[in-house]
Amino acid sequence: MTIQNWSDNIIVVELQDDPQFTDDINALFDSLDSRQDVDVVLNFGDVTFLNSSNIAKLLKLRKQLVVSNGRKLKLCGISTHVWGVFLVTGLDKIFDFADDVASGLAGLQMNL
Fold first, then answer.
1. Alpha helix stretches (DSSP H) within the chain
2. Chain segment 74-103, per-residue pLDDT in tens
3. CATH number of 68's domain
4. Which of 35, 55, 78, 97 is most buried (most C-beta within 10 Å)?
5. Would you say 81 and 50 are in contact if contact means Cβ atoms under 8 Å apart?
6. Entry pTM
């Protein structure tokens, strides 16, 4: 599990395929329970597939961060295969994407 406090108000999560994906997202939810003032960058660099459970967790995370708390969620480092899942499901229109972690962090910093 790699959940890292990049700054006082930004968390970077290095995701992997399931079952680690689920564990990492659940750990992220646990850490967000005590903090509502953070933006999150999810690095999909090591993710090669998404299942329906993963998608449901991402939607729940988006609802908690973006809709309920007005924070930002950036998804980055997405492979072509995983990007196809976002396109087919229409989720490419509701999530905010960046090419890599550095671009995602820069995008958050520019919008502060």
1. 20-33, 52-62, 80-89, 101-110
2. 999 999 999 999 999 999 999 999 999 999
3. 3.30.750.24
4. 78
5. no
6. 0.93
